[in-house]
Specification:
Blueprint: H1 10-19, E1 21-24, E2 28-34, E3 41-45, H2 53-67, E4 78-84, H3 93-107
Parallel strand pairs: 3-4
Antiparallel strand pairs: 1-2, 2-4
Helix pairs in contact: 2-3
The chain binds two RNA strands through residues 1, 6-10, 13, 43-44, 52-55, 57-58, 60-62, 64-66, 68, 93.
Amino acid sequence: MDRSYSLKRHKEFRYTYARGRSHSMPLFTLVYAKSRNDSVRIGFSVSKRIGNAVQRNRAKRRMRAALTPMVPRISGGFNVIFVAKPDVLEAPFEDLGKQMETLLRRAGLMRDEA
RNA sequence: UGAGUAAGACAGACGAUCACGGCUCAAUUUGAGGUGAGGAAAGUCCGAGCACCACAGGGCAGGGUGCCGGGUAACACCCGGUGAAGGCGACUUCAAGGAAAGUGCAACAGAGAGAUACCGCCCGGUUUCGGGUAAGGAUGGAAAGGCGAGGUAAGAGCUCACCAACGGCAUGGCGACUUGUCCGUUCUGUAAACCCCACUCGGUGCAAGAUUGAAAUGAGAGCAUUCAAUAGUGGCCCGCUACGCUCUUUAUAAUCGCUUGAACGAUCCGGCAACGGCUCGUCUAGAUAGAUGAUCGUCCUUUGACAGAACUCGGCUUACGGCUUGCUCACCGU
RNA sequence: GUGGAUAUAGUUCAGUUGGCUAGAAUGCCAGAUUGUGGCUCUGGAGGUCGUGGGUUCAAGUCCCACUAUCCACC
């Protein structure tokens, strides 16, 4: 996943949470808001409730790996945050990808191929 | 065989495909090569390096350490001893200086908590009392060193034997201390109560700090052209330094610092050991929302414990998986 | 990264310089009052003083280590 897509600054996270809308599934909550750029910018939020540093890092890695194949199909002009819930560590890897896709479709951020 | 005790090393291994952070080379957005977490990276409890502020200065206040000798850059750490405590033992643990420098405290109980006489005992007197005494009783965590004999009106280290503690002297040891002498003395506990003594500690932390930029030549406030005020500067005072400076608010990017180091490995030498020395060899993460995942195959013993570097080292503490070896005790067999 | 605070009854808090049986309010339970409920009155129960060690005759209090929660600064 290219680094330029990632959402970094604390200000950007704050803006997205304040102005954005959200959808949720058992593994994640999706928060998204319109941005000034044309490209899509994605952040991952893993709170201390998930576990210690090892488990938080692992959660971020799994989420990043699951999302990478579908990045080109996400429509631009949005900031997107995935908030992890505790089950992310135990769930099978395919479920992560499936739930991400349904969340993005529900938010209307997926471009149809064809 | 079981229980215990001390020490040590390890932290799943190998391979395939697609991904991730540095680095090198090609090349110009891709490819190739090689590399990439720990014994605790953790807690942040100590000690240092490094950077800035005086070259880190003086005094008061405050903190830390506290048997002895050694190791170390330094330490509250480590090693070897001494003493005390625990354990049948191997062995382990100890904030282990000073209570005859001073002050405070010792609830309740008890007559009395470094000061006494309630019940007693003895002598005189004979309702009441005066004097002597501390053996016995009772209280308490602790009651004028313990126990026996002599002694006495009754008693008492008043005297003596044995023991204990403290001081002196001698002996061995660098020293803590040990052993002896019987010369002198009989002084409660508490210093993780204040305190005294010895040694020691300046402050802030890599968001330190340095360099190059950008942006308003922004806004508000303070002091003032000199003794000063303000800032560096931290709990206070002194001293030193700077001078159109300081504070608040708004806005704020990149590079360096950033990994070769009190480093690691091996032979030999010195030392009981911690550790030190000579020579040779090795290069071993450096990110900046922050790098190890997914899908399999084979093997051991299952889904493989605890857990992820953020300037760097030395310790301590806490979390945790199985394994090996020495030693001790108990039981059984020969 | 650095510094600080708190933990006591179900809940919110006291507990002074170590000392007698750890208190208060509220909530809970029982009884009285009422035709019934509330209010009110009376009585009662309820505590591993965050955890583990140590000092002391004696620890909620003093010391050390750990755990959890919260706050501040850059």
